[in-house]
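Take a record:
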Amino acid sequence: MRVRLRPRLASWWPIPAGALLGVLLPLAAGAAPARAAGTAPARPPAAEEQTLLHREATRDTTGIAALLRPPAAAVVRARAARALGHIGDRGSAPALIGALRDPAASVRREAAFALGLAADSTAVPALAGALLRERDPAVRVTIVTALGYLGAHDAAPSLATAIRSQRPAERQAAALAAARVRDSTLVDPLLRVVRDKRAETRWRLAYALGRIGDVRAARALRTLSYDRDAVVRAFAARALGEVRDSSSTARLGALMHDGAWRVRVNAAQALGALGIAREVRSLLPFLVDAHPHVRWQVAVSLGQLGDSIAVPALTKALDDSASGVVQAAAVALLKIRGDRAVPDAAAALDRLPSYLRAVLADALGDVEGPAARDLLFARAADTSDPPTAAGAISGLGRRPAWGDASLPLLRPLLGDRDFTVVCAAAEALGALGDTAAVPALAALFDRTFTTQDDDVRTSSATALAALKTPAALQALRAARRDRDHRVRAIVAGALGWPADSVASAPAAELKSRATPRTAARRLTAIVTTARGDITLALDPNAAPENVENFASLARVGYFNGISFHRVVPNFVVQAGCPRGDGWGGPGYAIPCEYNDKPYGTGTVGMALAGKDTGGSQWFITLSPQPRLEGRYTVIGSVASGMDVVERIMPGDLILEVRVR
């Protein structure tokens, strides 16, 4: 079952292990960008801006390419390139490639960034050629970043050269780009500069080496784990697990005593990833760590290691004061004890907030035995609690052996009043291969009026693509011009069509002001919680539509009484879902405004269920998260109260949000 964080940030239950990347305070650590600071270009004249805003808001490229060329002024050309980047239509690539030779550096920079967002790897040769001739440092950084966004292996030679650059910002951008491309030929160039004197570069190098996952980097990563900078140590600890270096367990055990909680979280995650059962003894003492994120990750890792020696401590952790620790301990016990742990899981279900209940219910689908089976069926049938029902339905979708009993339960749920239950049932029926459900699944495409209906159609398309019967494929062909690009992408993949073959379909209606604006000042939002106040500095110049949407919702009290429904140790805290389960939103979608601001510690971004599905959900990063850049709109950062953010647990309420 997909985690529909309406909008969502993660894609599947359970929370992906790859979500844990660490850093230590001070909060400024990791905040310096690996590329030139992202700022909106100077505003073009009102008439041109009105046209561009309208085209961008409606995701219509008509006439924009003409504004990329003289006699349009440079400020107009730059704004046109940014608009094409936000729209993300691959058909714009030729015009943007031409703009890489524009005489104005601002235009070249915007064109390069837009090409990176377009996800068209055929632009790699043009970007590589532009890098060879480009002299402007800021443009070079953006070109390197764009090569990383495209993720193509043929970008590796250009990135290898950029890694050796004498310019720190270019080296840092190249390291992040290498992490996205994940080409093993980049390991040696990265290792040659791993002793860079700048901590900002070293943590990016550790991040890249971990993402590539080549064990040749293990020795260098062990060295970096002793770094004087805690940010570097945290990334090195995480990377040691990613490169599968089993000889590093002793070092990781020592890092569990590090004074920085983020380092301890990442060391615990790495020990779990390595899967060496004897390391349980290194982790057990930290189930009572002072920081809840450490306790949470330790419980997760103990579940991965699967040693029964951890059962008493995990059972005690079911009474932890932090909701995330309780959920993680229950899931770990299910992994270790199987069906015998189901009574503990059942008791925990009723104590957890909505989002964590759904995750725990879904985890029951991995457990063999009659107790798990009975609990799954009971919870799936009780749709008065949609989050738990949706999680249980997802769990049933992974149990084909129970199909004779589960299919009669799941089929009627396609008509349930709660859309999350419908989505979960559709995807479960697809996973179970229920070809008899094809007509009912195809009928779900008739739901077209709300953003909830968009989610239902996406789940229906997912199920039909999994079934692949002639009738299922015919239903997908009929949906090839669906208003939701997620559906169109599923259709293209299932039918073997190029992605561009559905790109010209009408875009979903997005909520947008689409009017010219004068330069906007920064806004301040004060988020009051029971744990203290968090002050957010919002940046309307970086993302005007998204910031205005957040501010408008706050001014009418939308966020008051809503919980932080989702927290991932040392990754994000997330709020803005009126349902509390990650599926809720304001009933409309807003356009993404991807910008080149980095995701450092305390960055505020808009969560998504796919491009242009933003609404009311937002998140705050707990550490630098380069993998979010270019994929989620940055709307601001934490100005004060990061210590409060670090204490937030799922279920904690927002008492009030004030904007000034």
